[in-house]
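new request in #modeling-help
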Amino acid sequence: MIRLNHEPIDPAELCESVRSARAGGTVLFLGTVRELTGSVRTEFLEYEAYQEMAEKMLADLESQARQRWPIVECAIVHRLGRLEPKTVCVAVAVSTPHRADAFEAARWLIDTLKQNVPIWKKEHGDRGAAHWVHPGTC
Amino acid sequence: MIRLNHEPIDPAELCESVRSARAGGTVLFLGTVRELTGSVRTEFLEYEAYQEMAEKMLADLESQARQRWPIVECAIVHRLGRLEPKTVCVAVAVSTPHRADAFEAARWLIDTLKQNVPIWKKEHGDRGAAHWVHPGTC
Amino acid sequence: MSVQTTITVTVQLFAGAREAAGRGTLDVVLSDNGTIGQLRRALSEQHPQLAALAPHLMFAIDTRYADDHTAVAEHAQVAAIPPVSGG
Amino acid sequence: MSVQTTITVTVQLFAGAREAAGRGTLDVVLSDNGTIGQLRRALSEQHPQLAALAPHLMFAIDTRYADDHTAVAEHAQVAAIPPVSGG
């Protein structure tokens, strides 16, 4: 399941959507908007996507992960729009029969998502400064 | 935070208890009672602990993890008693400034918990057979 | 006398590229049988406000990443993709 | 004539050990200055229903794992710990 929209991300709903009596291990990753990056305070982030391409790539990531690991259920959710610190901006949930696979697949999904998928964030600081964040800073 | 009792495990509560505006990454692991192990059907599991020692060891695991990784918040919860398939039996939640540490710490915590902490489970099959589960089978 | 046939490609812009251009799409004229590499140069020349960003852009054709050797057709869905930073 | 001083240690039992014994604790008599290794043997000899499991047990003294060389004091909190399988 993939989702890319402006709706709040519900960790409990995600867990229940992937948990299964066939899956002994479930791993949920939540990305949270940080208040501080080094000594720089974030007022809010603004997320934007190339919606059509990003959705296709997220669906493709899910397919690739299902080929590499024995995934029972998988969910990849990214939120868009203006997000304040402590808001969940991205989530990946994976369930597998044994836990090692769930950890590996969830890690691979979030790492690959951040490298490739056309989603951008603009950081708005507390002094009015704003800039597009470059990869590898979070 | 550590907890070892008969109460249901609430994934949403755990996520919120560890999420923080200082932590960009949160990883939640949920262990779920599987219905099948190979072709053997589980009716229910019965968990038992050496409560005093297990609680001390869980608290010690949290301390060790906090020394190895820059953990913002950490929760380790294990449920006891009779648990049916699809029930959450164990959960680990970790938040860290950057996601790699949250994945590593959560993985280390659940792996080490399963190796060392005096908690046992007895598997009750659908034909009335029951046996204590040996390590490495789940 | 040789006739240079050209095509006009509409490029979708996102994030920093959209802000640099002040709009969501730009038209770029390039020679027929042009490539993404030629599109990148033409974008810089025809829209100087994107010249600083152009070397750092990725491009997608019909929602797939394309490299500088990929041919660009006139009615392809072309997008300029600044370095991503999702999550 | 030598006098062998002995101590009686109460061992807490869990999981398969508890079920094999049919109870939650057992008393084991061993020589003063005895070790966990001697306790393991004495447990097998004095409570044959645990003989099969004894080689696979870990022991804890005062809630910490102890090896076979660790000395056992009379009033220590001793526990027999079958292979764990939490999670």
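bot summary: Chain D touches chain B through 16 residues (CB under 8 Å).
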